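Reading a protein record of the kind used here takes only a little practice. An example makes this concrete, so a full record is given next.
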Amino acid sequence: MTRISQMLARLLLPSAALWLALVSPAHAWEEWANRVIGFSSEYGTTEFGSVQALDLPDTASYGDSPLAWTPANMSGTQEFLTLGFREPLHADGAIIVESSGNGYVTSIEALDTGGVYHTVWAGTDPTQPDSILSFHPTWAATSYLAQGLRIRVDTNHSAGWEEIDAVKMTGAPADTLQWASKVIAVSSEYSSPPEPFSSIQALGEPNAVKYGDNGNAWTPAENGGSQEYITLGFAAPVTASGAVIRESNGNGFVTRIDALDTGGAYHQVWSGADTTPPGAIGWFAPTWTPTTYAVQGLRITVDTGHDSAWEEIDAVYLRGQATGASAPAIANISPTNVFREGPDLVLTVNGTNLLSTTVVRLNGSDRPTTWVSGTQLRAAIAAADIASPGPLSITAYTPPPGGGTSNSAAFTVSPDLVQWASMALGSSSSFNPAGPYSPAQALGPPDILAYGDSSNAWTVERQNSGLQYLTLGYNRLVLADGLTVRETNATGFVKAVDVLDTDGAYHTIWTGSDPSAPGAIAEFSFEFTQTAYVVRGIRVWVDTGRSPADWPEIDAVQLKGIPIAVPVPSITGFGRSPLLKGGLACTLVVNGSGFTPTSVLRWNGADRPTTFVKTTQLLASLSAADVAAAAAISVTVATPPPGGGVSPAAALSVGPAVWGDANGDSSLTVADARESLRIAAGLVKRSASSAGDVAPEYPQSAIGYGDGRLDVLDAIRILRRALTGS
């Protein structure tokens, strides 16, 4: 069977989780029967035999099944089944999975380690028929250790066969026993968590029901002879004396076990021959001299060359005596300060008594934590955690036994926002106006890793050409207080820096000598007194004579400052209204308030290319299709979060006046071209308005071709439109 088909097939197998869902609250320890001690009768020696009641439940549906123990007689007898368990317990209950004729249990006796039976429960089994259910009788915990249970069955209870699929004993063991609860490390895995065959499949109680290739077990990526390992963590540190490894395929593969102490050191505790035979799920139970140190994890080394099959581990539990974990302590964290609205980050926590079960908490809430060593943790801090400025508290928490919460470490989110440039606003010169070496190459975060000439940076048109500048814009408006220029070639060239306010004015905030030395990428950073005005861009002045024979290059520029609240925009009017029907593509001037570099004009709800001029003005590009026909247009301006919103709609008309209708007859003909030519030649005197239309006394439709005047070129275009319609 292929791995893919196995992943599908496993979904059709009965799952132990199905039965576990029917179990009452957790006990100190729960275990499925692992051997048959005795029985009154059995319908068969294999199918329907007593061995069918061992290990995990595997009967798929209610009713007569060869996968469950069945007495030899359907009715008229009192039968019993005695099962043994791997770990003796101070037993306090049982879980009996009844798969046919439910409700038949009459009493239960516990078998102590001295071989004596004790009745622990007798009464009426309330389990209802017609579906597989778990009967869960409980009793006061035994003062002795129980190694087995004898279950008595009344075959007269129903007209059908009474059948037991599986039995679990619950109680408290003499030692501390615990299933693995965390993956600390793995050499390889056939798939990534949480997929089948991944390392997390070895956590918790067993759930691989059948021997063979099974997605419910951890499988190394290869099975051709490599030495692989899986390191598993346990909730409570113990002085360990052994482990039990449930091998579900390719059995007999364990070659070495190392114990991981609470300080992060590994100690070999076992090596040798794993004698677990293949062909059936096996439990390998190596033991060793109890450790003198507290153990929090095991590293299990596997020989994938042991068998031609895949070597697979379903579950692992650790045996030992609980020591109780010490409370964690934090020495320091890194970083201690971050800028608001930054990206996801990894926080390093250094300290002592840090276990694989220890989690980092931010303001008391758990964060995904990776254990590095007994003195270091790493926590994933999401962007949402640092969206707002202010102090935060970092603690480490280790669950019981022992453990507790550490001291608090201060973690501060700065009120400052840092952002990379998002708009190329211009330059005095550029090696290329677009593409490589253009101003656009200085946008966004850095993307150059090595010093030297790179087309991913902006550079000037000519070497040694005096002072040149690059102007960049930013999406977020700030009260600026810092800047970083990332220089990637001929470094040390910054001569001055101006900031651009939202009214279009420049303010010089730094001049001097850039100390960056050529030969390595440099991030020239400086801070300045916070601006009293709102900043939308920067202009960096470059001294091309600093290294006359080389090219000064800028990879990225970061602006720092306090973000301002962005209002909902509003529209107060347009540079021209109404627009002319049938005109060419044009630029619409939009006047209002609350505009930002990210504001976009919407034409009947659809975005149009928009240029930010200042907080009170935008320019929007309209296509010829936008003004092709007379219409009433709803115009809004949208500013994306944070803040912002969509403005109230403003009405704008297209038509009824026709573009190029120089003689005012509401149509476009050769006569309009003739009249336009007379105007352009000065035969008819008309003055252009500030809006680019001719004066009011002449038909508004006789306009210049986007340059504020009517000339011969306009007349030619009007003639072409009149003759061809284009």
